[in-house]
Amino acid sequence: MASRAAGTYPPVPEPLPHPIVDTHTHLDIGTGMRLPLGAGEPAPEVTPDEEEEFPDLDFFFDTAEQAGVRRIVQIGCDLPAARWTTALVASQFAGRAGVADVNGSHAGTGGSQADANGSQTDANGRSAASALIDPSVVATVPAPPESPRTWMLGGAALHPNEAPRLAEAGLLDDALTEIEALVTSTDRMRVVGETGLDYFRTGEDGIAEQQRSFRAHIEIAKRTGRALQIHDREAHADVLRILREEGAPEVTIFHCFSGDEAMARECAEAGYFMSFAGNITFKNADELRRAAASAPLELLLTETDAPFLTPHPYRGKPGGPYLTPITARKLAEVRGMDAGDLAEAVWTNAETALGSWD
Ligand SMILES: [Zn+2]
Predict the structure, then answer these.
(1) 159 CA to centre of ligand 1 in angstroms
(2) Disordered: where is this region (predicted)?
(3) pLDDT, tens digit (0-9, with 9 covering 90-100), for 225-266
(4) Which of 17, 143, 176, 237 would be a feasible disulfide site paired with 340, CB 3.0-4.6 Å?
(5) CA 194 to ligand 1 centroid distance, Å
(6) Distance between Cα 22 and ligand 1 center (Å)
């Protein structure tokens, strides 16, 4: 893997006339806390090569601020990343004046959480999830900034490529239980994702467990009142079918939307949000751009999926949330609208989908 030192990152783009939101990013991977999952990778417990240099969180916060990316959703998609994400967003929450209780129940889900985890609440009345967060993971999260500049929400799930591996080890059910505990441990965790299907990287034998995991995540999202973020790689028909069969959560988001116009129409009819990433800028992405042009404005979201999918002309380099304006500009261009207006619409859509960041 190439060095991910800060110097290899693309320059910070001009901010748009309106702040923009990155609804899906992996700062855990960007900062070298986690390595990306690969097909059939032995275990995600590996740590990055000691030789490798990664930028720290401040690099991502500073560059995001310079680029006008003022809201971020950090996604952890294996258990260690999910724990790290929960600790990170909870620590920012705790840093806010007047907000002391990072373990406070989500208004809409307090009851069901108590039912599910009541017996696991510890002597201090903390939720099961906070007890599950490994203190050594929490210790790696920097102290919350005095006044958080780039405000963050979080999400967690078992990635579709992670599910078969856990199932094979007999760990999938326990892992799903922990994911639910983590997403309900603080109000800052608003997303169950990314989950879904990935037929590009998973062979025949992994598909059944992948589908079981996807169905379980749909249930968790509905039970906890969180938004569902879907990873769909070369599995459009089955993803849509399983959502129909299970009944989709109230808020369902296709992260890194990769379908065509027909799929965009189907998503629009079902009221699913479509989140576009840097691949919309790639040279061979005409079909995706047509889909983006046809999607209803009120269902559009923007994201980076950083450090992956770095937009053209920086494709192949590592990225960060600060590159969202490049994707937003392209999205505005294919829709023939002003980029500031697009940013404003997406900003509103993200609040509709995920609630307030304040
Ligand atoms: Zn992702």
Answers:
(1) 9
(2) 104-127
(3) 999 999 999 999 999 999 999 999 999 999 999 999 999 999
(4) 17
(5) 6
(6) 12
Separation of CA 193 and ligand 1 centre (Å): 9
**Residues with a beta carbon under 5 angstroms from ion ligand 1:** 305
Q: Which domain holds residue 350?
A: 25-32+56-94+126-142+149-354
Which residue, chain included where needed, has tokens 């299907």? 197
Asked if residue 99 belongs to a domain, the reply is: no
- In sequence order, what DSSP letters do the residues of 135-175 get, joined into one string? HHHHHTSPPPPSS-SSEEEEEE---TTTHHHHHHTT-HHHH
81: CB partners within 8 A, 6+ apart: 26, 28, 29, 33, 34, 44, 156
Lowest mean pLDDT among 2-16, 120-134, 150-164, 199-213: 120-134
Could you read off the pLDDT of 9-62 as tens digits, one per residue?
A: 999 999 999 999 999 999 998 888 766 554 333 333 334 555 667 888 889 999
Percent of the chain scored above 90 by pLDDT? Answer: 67
Q: Is residue 101 part of a domain?
A: no
Tokens of 324: 């969202």
CATH of the domain at 72: 3.20.20.140
Q: How many domains does the chain have?
A: 1
State the Cα–Cα distance between residues 296 and 194, nearest whole angstrom. Answer: 23
> Is there a contact between 321 and 41 (Cβ–Cβ < 8 Å)?
no
Question: What SS3 class is residue 133?
Answer: coil
- Which residue type does 335 have? R
